[in-house]
Specification:
Elements (H helix, E strand, L loop, with lengths): L11 E5 L4 H12 L3 E6 L2 H14 L4 E5 L5 H15 L4 E4 L4 E3 L7 H11 L1 H17 L2 E6 L12 H21 L4 E8 L10 E3 L6 H12 L4 H14 L3 E4 L1 H12 L2 H10 L5
Parallel strand pairs: 1-2, 1-4, 2-3, 4-6, 5-8, 6-7, 7-9
Amino acid sequence: MTTPRIDLDGAVVLVTGAGGGIGAATALAFAERCSNVLAVDIDEVSAKQTAEACRATGSRMALAYGCDVADAEAVADLAAGVHSEHGPLDVLVNNAGVGLTGELLGMTLADWHWVRSINLDGPVNCLRAFGPAMLERRRGHVVNVSSALAYIPRATEPAYVATKSGLIALSQSVRADWRRSGVGVSVVCPGVTNTAIIDHTRFVGRRDDPRVRARTAGLFRRGHPPAKVAAAIIDAVDRDRPVVFVGWEARVAWAVHRTAPVRLQQRLATVLTDGR
């Protein structure tokens, strides 16, 4: 079944992690298409700044909400309020995410629960809270923001890779289910992007080193602009694309993932870690 095209002019669009980076750029991109933007972030102050920028850009309505997507009850309350005021969403962008770098035995179970609760449980919470109204109306689109690292195993990022890989599998599975009801689901996999995610990344174990943090921050500063990812998210909605890769490294890595022998992939997982 082909999902109905979403007219973004006047559409109700909710973006999580909208306080900065890819989320803020995405909110602004929808505002430029005259969508009604709901900017959600755990930091409500930053969400309000994004909403203000959206109103200045062209959005007829842009509102801010403070919400921790890892808190299923808080997300359910948010959905109840949004549905009461605005009705079902036309577009849901699950963008909120954090980083965790360090070998498996260098992190605690609390570290694992933290990264999973935001990167994977967060989208699940939002899908469960906002999805039923979209399905009942038989129209809408969901975009989940994963990462090129979802298919690049790394010895030093097992938790991050696992959560982002899980998000791809989740997206493809839910897409297969929800398409029958007219709701599209896409997953976007950006390469290295110039955002402040390092400020929301835990460095643990042998990676808990100021030099590693500085090198990683320098790498991200040379990354793609968030607006490039935002444009890919808009395109995913416009064209109902199942999987979108952003950046040459994301596309090359996907090709390697699909075609390289497992032994080579395992070797790369070892050497792509600060040259070790």
